[in-house]
Structure formats: structure tokens, C-alpha cells
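Final report, closing paragraph on structural work. Over the funding period we assembled a curated collection of sequence-structure pairs, and we close with a single example.
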Amino acid sequence: MSLRRLLTLIYTRNKEFIRDRSSLSWNIIMPVFIVAGFAFAFSGEFVTKYKVGIIHSQDTTTSLTTFISTKYTDFIPIENIDDAITKVQRHQLGLLLDVKNLRYWTNSDSADGYFLEKLLLASTSLKLDKQTVSGKEIRYVDWVIPGILSMNIMFSALFGVGYVIVRYRKNGMLKRLKATPVTALEYLSAQVISRLILIMVITIFIFYSTNYFIGYSMHGSHLSLFLIFALGAISMISLGLLVAARITSEETAGGLLNLLSWPMMFLSGVWFSLEGTNPIVQQFAEIFPLTHVTAAARSIMIDGAHLVEVSYHIIILSIQSAIFLLIGAVMFRWE
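Its predicted structure, as stored:
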């Protein structure tokens, strides 16, 4: 090996990268946006140990102010009582308090619930009606696996299609295809179908092979879960095609795909729940396909939801897929 040639190649490659202004900009700006986004999403007092759901929080009385002002406890306004009770059963909420009707729910098997109940009764002289529920705690691995599978689909879809098409355009392969009767829509549709088959085979293998050893909590239909993952894959493949519709630089494509994938990975509820984060962040997360895939898959696996119950996510993913694919086909260029 020649050290001189090696250093020359390193110098040339670095100079080429610096001259690509768009790629250089993405690599500088993207980390800044990620850091700023996390600082905004988790600004404030987030050193919390316990979670308490509050029903009719606007009717809070003075007698309960002491309890609701407890430090290191996250008090979450609740709209759907049934969903909140389910969270108490699964240890996702330590205690559920209805301040209007003076009643509370606690899980007899929850350590957090035990201490929160003692604290509640000690901080008020009101007579509260106790409702006891029971249920097995949802393990973190049960909660996080839908997000991990969805995230794996995202990376495979975005980089497996978007980046490859840019490389094909750069080396002239798409230019040769242009001389054939194949249309842009046909070519892009073929890319979607081909990548979809590969993604689903890999996802099914990962799910069942790891489930054999871990034993996930699966309360819904395997077919429904399969359809949600398939629809999510189509949506993100279409997004990858949209990114690669006109780009000719692999560095720019990589920057754009990272700009899409990293915020999705952290703001779509893959690793942690967005409950308690800034409401603007929660609304912003709704634009990501990964958010809807993860939420729908998690509802099916943990809550046993049917497709009708996750129809909102299905509609959003279907609309996004159609829009991404249509715009990508219109913008697509061979050279």
C-alpha cells in the first residue's frame, strides 16, 4: 500500500465533499436541528418518577392542591376514562384521580400506586371513593418492539430505495432505461413492490424469531399487524422515492434521508411515550408516517385493537402513500 496514494485519495474525497455545498449544509444543520428539537421537547422540569392521571382537572379543589403540586410527579390530564383505567391496569399510570367525583383508581399490584395512594390520603381530608383494579405490567420490550420493527422498516425503505435510485441516476443506469418504453410510474411502482416484498419478509422473520425467545404480549390479530406494517412500508418507500425523484448527488440524498429518518426515530414514540412532552411536539409528530405505523402496531399488539379501531392511522398512511407516489412520479427524471 502506498501512503502517498492513500493520502491523495483522502484529500480528494474530502475536497469533493466540501465542494458539494448542499451536502455540507445538511451535515451541519441537521445535528443543530436535532439538538434544538430535543431541548425544546424536553424543556422544563422532567425529573419525574411517578405518573398520575387527572380526570376533570379543571374542577380541582383546594383540598387536592397539595397532592397535585407534589414534586417529581407527572400529572397528566385525562379525557378517556376507559383508556386511563387500562393504563392503571398495565402500570403505565401509578394512580388515576377523578377530582370532580372524588374517586381514584389504583392497581393492587403496583408499587407506584401504593405510595401515591398513601400520599394522596395523607394530603387531603376529603373522603375519596377507592376503585381497585389489577393487571399484569406491560414490559418495556412489549411496548418498544412495535416501534423497533417500524423503525427497521423505515430505514430499509428510505435508504434501500431512495439512495439506490440516486446512485443509479448518477452512474447512468436510469439514462439507459429512459430509452425503453418503461414510464416513470411503472418504474417507481416496481421499486415499491420489490422493496415491499423484501421488507415484509425480513420483518416477519425478525418478529417470529425473536418472539420465540422473548414471548411478546400479542393481544391482536397477526394479520392486522402484518397489514399495518405493509401499509407503513409502502408509505415510507414512497417517501424515499419522492426524495430521490430528482437528486443526483449521493451525499445530498444521504443528508435528506437522514434529515427525515432521525427526527422520525426520536419523535414518533419508538423509544419513549410522547406523553408529557410539549403539545407542539406531539402535533408535529403526527406528520411522520413512522408515528402512525408505531401507534397502530402498538394498539394491535398491546390493546388487541382491530383494524377499524386504528382506521385513523390507516387513512393517514394511505393518503401519504398516494401523495408521495404521485408527486414522486411527476417529479421523477431519468438523468
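Strands lie at 50-55, 73-78, 95-98, 103-107, 129-133. Residues 140-331 form one domain. We thank the funder for supporting this effort.
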